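Worked example 4.2. Below are the chains of a multi-component assembly; read each line carefully before continuing.
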Amino acid sequence: MSTKAYNILLVEDNAVDARVITEALTKAGEGAFVIQRAERLSEAMEKLRTQAIDLVLLDFMLPDSEGMATFSAVRQEAPNVPVVALTGVSDEAVAIEAVRLGAQDFLVKGQVQPKTLHRALHYAIERHKVQAAQLKQAQSGKKGKVIGIIGARGGVGATTIALNVATALAKKHKDVIAAEMLGSYSAFYDHFFYKKSRAALSGLDVLMKLEPEKITSREIERCLVKLPSGLGLLLGPQRAEDFQDLDPAKADALTRALAGLGQYVVLDLQSHVSAACQTAAKLCDFVVVVIDRTPAGVVAGKVTADLLQHLGVIPVRIGVVVVNRQPLPISVDVAEVLNTMGCQLVGVVPTATDACSEAQRVGSPMVASDPQGTASGALIEIAERLATEQVLGK
Amino acid sequence: METPDRIGQQKPAVDAAAIERLREIGDGDVSFLKEVFSAFESDTTQRLVALRTTLTAGDFTGLKRAAHTIKGSALNVGASVLAASSLQLEQMAGAGKSEGAAELIGRIEEEFKRVAVELRAITQG
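Applying the procedure described above to all two chains together yields the following structure tokens:
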């Protein structure tokens, strides 16, 4: 635990909320936080101008400002100070919008527990530090960012998310690669090529035959399938005779070499987390856990997040994407998801059965085949969030 | 200890789970509970006055804000009926509707009295 107390600015006009939050922070923080309060936006702006604030805990409904305008004003005044939104029970949509626009997290008032609050603020501050370091590194232009995508359980659509994120990134950035980390049947091939050709395309089948030290950026480049969009695909094997377990040492070499090759590398990691995938996950700058929005999905997500932490992936480098595969009656609050999993929200993908079917039919990810669709919009935002300094790396 | 159930046939105005949460946050410190309840009572009393004055003045923004604040405070102390009525008023004000607002404010005032009595019983019990 840090020895320096963090200076927290609590912007909250409601006296009862302010008292409860202050108590929760004081009790759980054990001196980790120094809290000062502003009741109005104008007062908060003044404090941000004149003091070194480590984090703003921000209610959006204030006497002199309301909704997203409150958040925008704070961001504009102090773009380098992390913000955690405080929302009411019925304001989840506003909270998600705030996270989309750069808030580190949100907390639902009236449900906050000291431990959750303490953890959320610590993570937000630590994430912010990581982001600043990442920004510096990005400016010095050393190597690409590796983003791992892992389904909390099979069938949640992690491969679809991985390909859509990579496709969206490729629209804006050069040298984007999507790679499968598996030694058997290529799902990427299914997504892109199944209607076009049955000829096997080279990829991991070739690389897996090399010794780890021979797996270099140059070798990988020769095995990439370049799509017209500019996206480079590293496909898993497609022929039964090429199937084999991916050796962890080779997965390690592959991930490192990929990072030297692409500006953004999206790794499709297997939901059962093979030894190779564990090795790759450890090397990722950020790992996205994809869950379906059901109680069982949340539990699976928690287990996956725990596993990643057990592997040494620090919590600020883990995020969650919630997929509404079908409109289900047993849906779960996003706040509950975050609370259970203890990691940040990267995005929520709405149900898109028709767009999914169409994407499969034309052999192109949804963000390319249906860019105006709501699910595509969410996926593009997820890609942007992963690409920008809002979610971060080394 | 006095239990809220003794107050008439109605359901308790204050949800026990919310009070338990506050006790946990305060680590069993009664003075913290007293402070929260006192902040709730004094702040809500002021906002109730604001409900009447803003409604009379046709100031829907002010009405919405006051109702919103009462709702937030009520949720902290587990006053779910008070919170629900305040949310209803907040939404009416947000939509610029005043029909039935005065009656709703009346109900909010009555419910607040019930909540205040129960909260006092908790810290005195």
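Take a moment to check your reading of the output against the notes. Chain A has a mean pLDDT of 86. Residues 114-140 of chain A form the longest helix (27 residues).
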